[in-house]
Design a protein that fits this description.
heterodimer, A: mainly beta, six-stranded mixed β-sheet, four-stranded antiparallel β-sheet, 12 strands, B: mainly beta, seven-stranded mixed β-sheet, 11 strands, globular
């Protein structure tokens, strides 16, 4: 069974500091993708960053970077220079690409509520 | 960028009535659409996978007769909550998948969600 684990229900960080949100995953499939989404209080799901299982380098998107450690099956999100607007729920998700997998289906973790304080 | 819309964004209905939620892909044809349910402070729970022209595939524990899904076209999927009860009150989110180039990496786009309150 596929599983995504986010062990931090809540995280606090001061503005302008960096923060790491943890995510571990479990799958026996060799081909998969890892995603991070941000969900503010409005409810919309905002795509942040993607890492493919065969990607050699860690993904980066602006202030977001993904610390991908394949052997440990972890895909932690690093947010640099936190801003007050970063306060939101963050979800880690995984998608499988092998045949037989439902195309596009995402497996979500429980989420981490990030609070950025001034 | 690709956009997925949902209508209505929020709805209040009386217990026993039915509510229809629409999910539309605005600038692409969605091969597959997904319906999720989210309770406050919790994760997204996949309810069903909707493919155009075929019956939806429901996740274990989701009542097919209660949550009717119709994927009539490549740009529209609907979720109807029949005989709604207060415990059906939740945030319902759809997502749509479209092929990206010719690779097996499929982009997925989320709608803004529909907040359902059953009184």
């Amino acid at each position: 069974a596929q599983k995504i684990t986010q062990t931090q229900p809540g995280m606090f960080v001061q503005e302008k500091e960096a923060v790491t949100l943890d995510c571990t995953y479990d799958t026996s499939d060799p081909s998969y993708g890892l995603f991070w989404y941000k969900q503010p209080s409005s409810g919309e799901m905002i795509f942040l960053i993607y890492q493919g299982s065969y990607d050699q380098q860690n993904a980066t998107e602006g202030r977001y970077s993904l610390n991908f450690q394949k052997a440990r099956k972890s895909a932690n999100l690093v947010i640099s220079a936190s801003q007050l607007g970063d306060s939101a729920m963050y979800f880690c998700a995984m998608r499988l690409f092998d045949r037989g997998s439902t195309l596009g289906r995402l497996y979500f973790g429980r989420g981490t509520q990030l609070t950025v304080w001034p | 960028g690709a956009v997925v819309s949902q209508h209505p964004s929020w709805v209040i209905c009386k217990s026993g009535t039915s509510v229809k939620i629409e999910c539309r892909s605005l600038d692409f044809q969605a091969t597959t659409m997904f319906w999720y349910r989210q309770f406050p402070k919790q994760s997204l729970m996949l309810m069903a996978t909707s493919n155009e022209g075929s019956k939806a595939t429901y996740e274990q524990g989701v009542e097919k007769d209660k949550f009717l899904i119709n994927h009539a076209s490549l740009t529209l999927s609907t979720l109807t909550v029949t005989s709604a009860h207060p415990e059906d009150s939740s945030f319902y989110i759809c997502s749509a998948t479209r092929p990206r180039d010719s690779s097996t990496l499929y982009e997925q786009y989320f709608g803004p969600g529909t907040r359902l309150t059953v009184t």
